Amino acid sequence: MSRIAEPVSVEFTDNPVDAAMARVLDDVRRGDHPGTVADYIPQLATADPEAFGIAAVSVHGHSYGAGDYRTPFTIQSMSKPFVYALALQELGVDAVCERIGVEPSGEAFNGISFDPSGRPENPLINAGAIVATSLIGGVDGAERFAAIRAGLSRFAGRDLELDEAVYASEAATGHRNLALAALARSTEALRIPVDEALDPYFRQCALLVDAHDVAVMGVTLAAGGINPITGERVISAEVARHVLSVMTGCGMYDRSGAWMVSVGIPAKSGVGGGIVAATPGEYGIGVFSPPLDEAGNSSRGVAVLQRMSSEFGLHLLNRPINPVSSVASAETDPSTGRTVLRLRGEVDFVAVEEVVHEALRRGRACSGSTVVLDLTDVTRISTVAAYLLTQLASDVGYGVRVVMQDPSSLCAAPS
Ligand code: GLN
Description:
Number of strands: 11
Distance between the termini: 35 Å
Number of helices: 15
Strand content: 5-15%
Strand order of the largest sheet: 2-1-7-6-5
Bound molecules: glutamine
Radius of gyration: 25 Å
Shape: elongated
Order of helices and strands: HEEEHHHHHHHEHHHEEEHEEHEHEH
Structural class: alpha+beta
Largest sheet: 5 strands, antiparallel
């Protein structure tokens, strides 16, 4: 098994971000959020119902935490998006999607959820997750689990240990998962012996994490597949986006719709009381509180993420209504009609629209004049923005002569 070369030291800052999270945590702790600790895996029933912690890690690699964010617990279903990511990385999107759908099935985590062709519909509930585990390479269950543990450890930035007692407890009582795996085998969604998928699945669910680990795993997805603490690329940006898309629709069992409306952050919960959430390009968040609501999601976990989403503006669809203009200044010389538009910062599709509109308006106001687009202060330009500016400058059909000053950012156009 590949091990992480060197333990990475994580620095917790005592600053206003921690304080803001601690305030939200305390408010939720005082509120009424009834729940019950899971006991269908007998060992989980021993969890402390009062334990409550939250951690966040930014794409800059800075860690924040409040409450019991260093208390270990088992990852359970939060392992599913990460094992799914490893399968996508190993086999490619098409091969995995042939075997597992990407639909929010609207089922509970242990639902019998197969499409008419016999393919599990949702990779983030058990039927689909067991098939995802089976796709990870290995000659047997032990090797498969070794690869999964190594992969999840890279997401977390440290070697994750197995909770033997929780594993043994689930292996002894997981009859419904045995039935789901057998059903998947009968439809040929599962193509290896049931036990060779089920045993590593039970083990992956029993990996020990704390809320900070969960936040690091989440931010690795949020940062396009690079763990910002270790600096290691764990999965491709394409796979990270695919997994976040699936988490957006499928991550909270049969409450995924309500979750998107009220919280709006790609997330995945587990019966151990954890929730992993990831705001693309921003944060990974890990929450831990064992009592679950009737859908199987951590009651306090849901409440704290609802609060954070609204107070910290984290809803995915909470995009700026009036984006910052890319036009830093626009000056037209009245004697020549020559206009200089100085652009700044990041130029994306909506920003370039304003630039094009302004260049054409000013250029057309005075025939024969020139519009200069000064790109010196542009820090990033999207592919579509670079394309549109190039078109504007090269196509005489627009009736305006446009020239670029310092167009080096056009060639760099990353996305
Ligand atoms: N190990 C658990 C199971 O398969 C995981 C379920 C969950 O966290 N929702 O039943």
